[in-house]
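--- STAGE predict ---
source: upstream dedup step, 1 unique chain passed
mode: sequence only
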Amino acid sequence: MSSLPNTHEVLLRNSSLLNGRIALLGISDPGLLPLCPSNGLAMTEHAGVFQALAAHTDWQACFGYEPEGLQPASFDTVVVFLPKARAELDLRLALARFLGRQSASLIVIGEKKEGISGGAKQFLAMVPDGLKVDSARHCQVWAGTNTQPKEAFSLADYLAWTPVACAGIEVAVAGLPGVFSEGELDDGTRLLLENLAEKPLTGEKVLDFACGAGVIGVWLQAYRKLAGAEVGVVDGLDVQAQAVACARATYAQAGARGEIYAADGLASLEGRWQAVVTNPPFHSGVKTDTSMTEQFIRQVAHHLVPGGELRLVANTFLPYESLLQRFIGPVQKLAQDNRFTVYRAFQRMPR
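--- STAGE serialize ---
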C-alpha cells in the first residue's frame, strides 16, 4: 500500500483538529478519506482523482469550484490543501469561507518547497486569528476561525478575459487562477499556432488534448473561417476543473463548435479524430514530469483515424520524438526555435 502525500499524512497527525462535518478542498489522494474521523465533502480539481472519489459513497465528491447542490455555512471544519499556483489559494480560501459555518475551523496545509510560507500570509489576511499549529514532513499546518463567512460564492466572479492574437487572428480567452498561462499566450502555443497557419491541418474533426482555456480550438476555427475553409469541429480535453470551465466559457464566447471533456488522459474517451493537436504539460508541481504526455502518446493512436495527424509542440529537450515514431508513425520536425519544437506524426495505415 503506497503512502499518502506528506500533506495528507500531516493532516492525520493533527486529526484532533477535524471536528464535525469536514470539507477537504484540494484532496489529491482518496486514500485519505477512510482515515478521517468523520465524513463530509471531498473537492478536487483533478478529473482522475474525482473519478476515484466515487468509490467513497459516504463522502460528497466535488469537481473544482462549482459546488452544485452545496449549501453555505454547512461544514464545521474546512481543510485547504495548498494549490500549486499561489493565485489559486485566494479562490480556495474564498470557497472555504463560503462552506464553513460561522466560527468553523479553517485549516491550511502545504509543503515548504511549494510555498506554504507565502500561503500562510494569504491565509492570515483572511483569517486574522490564524496560527501555525504544526510543522512536520516538510509541511506546515495553519489553523484559525471562520469569523468572516462568505454568503455567496460564484466561479464566474473570478473569470477574467484576455485578448490573444496570433497570425492575424484575435480571440478572447477566459482565465481563472491556476490555469496554465492565464492572461497570455505562452510561447509554445504561439509557435504551434503559427505553424498551423503555415501548414494547416487537413482534418475537419480535431481533438485538442490538454486544451487549457481553449485557445487552440477557438483560434483554429476562427483561422479556418477567415481562410474560407470548412470550420469543422475541435473538441477539447483537460484534466483540470478550472481549465475545463475556462475552455467552455471561451468556446461559448466565440461560438466555437466542439465538446470540452474533463478526463485524466484518453483511456476513458470514446471516438476517433482526423487530427489531434496538443501543447501537453510537463510539470507536476515544481518537478519535471513527462508521464502524462508519454501515456498520451501511447494511447493517441487508438483515437486517430488511419492516416490521421498528430501535431505536438514541446520543449526541445523532452524525449518525445522516439515515442512518436514508435507508437504513431514517421515523425517530422515542422518548426523549432530556441526552446520549442513542433512535431508532426501520421498514424500508420493498417496493413
